[in-house]
Amino acid sequence: MARIGRLLTAMVTPFDEAGRVDYARARQLAELLVASGSEGLVVAGTTGEGPTLTTEEKLRLFGEVCEAVGDRAAVIAGTCNYNTAESIALSREAMGVGVTGILGTVPYYNKPPQEGLYQHFKAIAEAVPLPLILYNVPSRTVTNLLPETTVRLSAIDNIVGIKEASGNLAAIAKIIEGAGPDFLVWSGNDEDTLPLLAVGGYGVVSVTSHLVGCQLATMIERFLAGEVAEAARIHRRLLPLTAACFVTTNPIPLKYALARVGFPVGAPRLPLVPLDEAGRAVVDRALADTTIDLPVPTRA
Questions:
Q1: Do residues 42 and 103 touch, judged by C-beta distance below 8 A?
Q2: What's the pLDDT at 41?
Q3: Where do the domains of the chain lie, and which CATH numbers do they carry?
Q4: Who has the most CB within 10 Å: 24, 56, 123, 272?
């Protein structure tokens, strides 16, 4: 089973001026993210506007990113939705293009009970022999994957961890306590990364790592080395940027921020819209006070 790193980036999907996926730009971004500290990339997730990508676009994007980063980083494919059969089919196709693992988002809209969630993820894991990372984000899915269900799922060999975006540190601590030591817990909220590490978590699936990946990697390293005060100092320093990146729906502010630092990735697809004037002012203030790690190529 492939080992997946502590700092993963939930990668944006670049679009060109006509709104088409810009695969060359995606490859370039993937390489820059790895160069600035990311040990893995989550492709076609929430930040990657997965709900607006076609199956064909997703599969090509998975393949292009895999080719771009090679064995330097894990590629986790956003393949799961509220339809178990569709999730299995897309996950199998993603496996065929070489992804490292898959991201299993809690089904949204149809609001399954906990037993339904268990059977959904069990069926996917049994059908697709890749590492599966669960993704609990009740602010988007409404349904919350309870700690007891997560612990139960952790007994399935290829369900290797969870991206936890509930913000409930007590529930996350229950998962860490109840699951085996090989079951990994990544923060799904940038501002929760250090608190999650403090209760025994593993890492983060980050949005702000597009901009400050090296600093986030250093924060994790300092914490693990026992330099908690220094890790906390980095955490506090990055909080204004984190807040700015979520001033409205992700990835709207992030796409604006990437353009501002010299790496435009196009506008979001409808039903998302570009950042408004008030939001732009918030992001601009945060960027002015932040050292950017993304090694943006020098423009001619």
A1: yes
A2: 98
A3: 7-231 (3.20.20.70)
A4: 272
Distance, C-alpha 180 to centroid of its chain: 23
CA 100 to centroid of chain Cα atoms: 14
- Over residues 106-139, the pLDDT tens digits come to 999 999 999 999 999 999 999 999 999 999 999 9
| CB count in 10 Å sphere of residue 73 | 24
CB hemisphere CA count around 210 (13 angstroms): 32
CB of 43 closer than 8 Å to CB of 5: no
* Residues known to be catalytic: 135, 163
Q: Is residue 60 within 8 Å of 99, Cβ to Cβ?
A: no
Vertex 116 angle, CA 114 and 121, to 5°: 100
Helix (H) or strand (E) holding 8: strand 7-10
Q: What is the mean pLDDT of the chain?
A: 96
* Dihedral pair phi/psi, residue 236, rounded to 5°: -65, -40
Q: What is the mean pLDDT of residues 189-200?
A: 97
Question: Residue 248: CB partners within 8 Å, gap ≥ 6?
Answer: 275, 276, 279
| Residues 6+ positions from 42 with CB-CB distance below 8 Å | 8, 9, 10, 11, 48, 76, 78, 103, 205
Query: Is residue 1 scored above 90 in pLDDT?
Result: no
**Measured distance CA(26)–CA(172) in Å, rounded:** 33
List CB contacts of 298: < 8 A, sequence separation 6 or more. none
CA gap 40, 162 in Å, rounded: 15
DSSP secondary structure string for all residues of 192-256: GHHHHHHTT--EEEESTHHHHHHHHHHHHHHHHTT-HHHHHHHHHHHHHHHHHHTSSSTTHHHHH
- Position 298 pLDDT exceeds 80: no
